[in-house]
Amino acid sequence: MMTDRPLFTELEQPFTCAAIYEPTVDAATSIMKESEFAGADSFILNLMGDGTQGLREEFLTEDHLERLFQSTSKPTMACYYRWHFGGESVDVTDEERQEILRRAVRAGAKCVDLVGDTFDPTLGPDVFTEEAKRYSLESERPPREVTDDPDAVARQEAEIERIHELGAEVQMSAHTRIHLDPEQALAVAETFQDRGADIVKLVSVDRSWEDMLETLEATVLLDRELDVPFIMMSHGEHGVLARYIAPFLGSMLCFTQQEYVPGGFYSQPLTENVNRVFDAVQNVTPTRDPEEVDWL
Ligand SMILES: O=C1C[C@@](O)(C(=O)O)C[C@@H](O)[C@@H]1O
Questions:
Q1: Ligand 1 centroid vs 279 CA: distance in angstroms?
Q2: pLDDT digits (tens, 9 = 90+) for 211-256
């Protein structure tokens, strides 16, 4: 008998979530099956590909998506950003993106990624441009993909309810394109939690080891203060190390990949590798107050 796939918040944490960037359902299925052997616990499917690192538009039907989700007993989360990993902006409205994400849920996705500025896109340079790089190198810019416009927030809250009614969870996310210090990270995370998100995801920017250490500090702060599960991580080469470590400090999962394709996105560690780390690192969760420990 078919068993339903678990929700993301039902999985034992921390776990791996393998990113699927393939252009066709067959290719995506093949990578998902191989990822299962590498120990992937869940998947994130990129829907905004149209030929470059994500599912092509012709596969965005309920039938195609259902065939893909049914090929695994692991849960899949769907995302459809305004940009794709090839670097260009995607020419669809927020309403269309949400319609496609709801279609994915009807086809069996267990979670959708709701970008934090949906219905009120934050202004800023196009991603992957020289100007975007400058934006990320400076700290005193507002975080991208975060809005507090009351109309947009009300629509986001209604969208979260619709997705809940369809039986899936919502991960509210922001790729902030700037480095977040711990207090900034907590402020954004709390607004997403207040909107009804089941999971909060923050992707900061780390430009140095000091930034990376602040990202880990933000992870500890979020773990202490947030009521919902969260994912804390960063873009930037200094952020890669924290992707392995943050899951031990409370970040719920690590986004991984099965293999690195030429011209691909290499910040996500390989699934097999992360699982080896998760398995090897034991006995690091404190169970007693420092006062109760003999050997300090
Ligand atoms: O948003 C995220 C995280 C990500 O941006 C990363 O940096 O690992 C990659 C995306 O596939 C995923 O949806």
A1: 23
A2: 999 999 999 999 999 999 999 999 999 999 999 999 999 999 999 9
- Residue 293: inside a domain, yes or no? no
Cα 71 to ligand 1 centroid, rounded to whole Å: 22
Residues 171/233, Cβ–Cβ less than 8 Å: no
196: alpha, beta or left? (left if phi > 0; alpha if psi -120 to 50): left
**Sole residue written with tokens 């005193």:** 140
Residue 244: domain span: 11-277
- Asked if residue 274 has its Cβ within 6 Å of ligand 1, the reply is no
Residue 41 has pLDDT above 60, yes or no: yes
Q: Evaluate whether residue 1 is within a structural domain.
A: no
Beta strands 111-115 and 76-79: pairing type?
A: parallel
Per-residue pLDDT band for 1 (boundaries 50, 70, 90) equals low
Separation between Cα atoms, residue 4 and residue 69, nearest integer Å: 11
44 lines ligand 1 (CB under 6 A): yes
